[in-house]
Amino acid sequence: MRVGIFGGTFDPPHLGHLVLADEALHQLKLERLLWVLTPDPPHKQVQTISPWQQRFELVQAALADNPAFEISRVDVDRPGPHYAVDTVRLLHDQLPGEELVYLMGGDSLHDLPTWYQPQELVRLCVQFGVMHRPSDAIDFQKLEILLPGAGVKIHFIEAPLIEISSNDIRERIANGQPFRYFLPPAVYNLVQSEGYYR
């Protein structure tokens, strides 16, 4: 079975996340896609992030009507820091015999050689699904020198460019601007009923 791993802060999860996840599921021929909520990402220490319990609740709401999507507790149930390689190693142990496909943005692929234990991450994953933007310049020759074996595992995901960001949504909510159609209805309803991001 091929299982996708889609990590992020998801603060909040929006329609752009869902479109990319659905395209990844289809194009990479995944049986299911695990959404891995990162409680305290090492690269966002200077940013204010909503409590993970709130984000977990919102992701659960976003995924409720798609049986191929599920939320994983692999990172929220352990202390940080939460590096991708540790997350994948734990999932590898939890899902023996399943092929793990790690999803990332083109900017992350560019930075992959600087990640924590990147060669081990390459070894553990059968494929990397990269959500590519036209502006992402990736030097495959350089990547292969720095991370042998990574290049052959990369598959670009073609998806419509939806210019929505969680940061923009949070600002819109805080400033009283419209945001309803940036979010799945279940997420919008939760944000409204609980008064999140106000």
How would you characterize the overall build of this protein?
- With 198 residues, the protein is of the alpha/beta class.
- The chain has one domain (2-194): HUPs (Rossmann fold).
- It contains 8 helices and 6 strands.
- It has helices spanning 15-27, 52-63, 84-94, 106-111, 118-124, 140-146, 166-174, 185-194, and strands at residues 2-8, 32-37, 69-72, 99-105, 127-131, 154-157.
- The model has no long low-confidence stretch (mean pLDDT 93).
Round the mean pLDDT to the nearest integer and report it.
93
Helix content: 25-40%
What is the annotated CATH architecture?
A: 3-Layer(aba) Sandwich
Major sheet summary line: 6 strands, parallel
CATH superfamily membership, which one? Answer: HUPs
Question: Which key features would you list for this structure?
Answer:
6-stranded parallel sheet, about 200 residues, Rossmann fold
SSE blueprint and pairings:
Layout: E1 2-8, H1 15-27, E2 32-37, H2 52-63, E3 69-72, H3 84-94, E4 99-105, H4 106-111, H5 118-124, E5 127-131, H6 140-146, E6 154-157, H7 166-174, H8 185-194
Parallel strand pairs: 1-2, 1-4, 2-3, 4-5, 5-6
Quick gist of this model?
This protein is an alpha/beta fold and 198 residues long. It contains 8 helices and 6 strands.
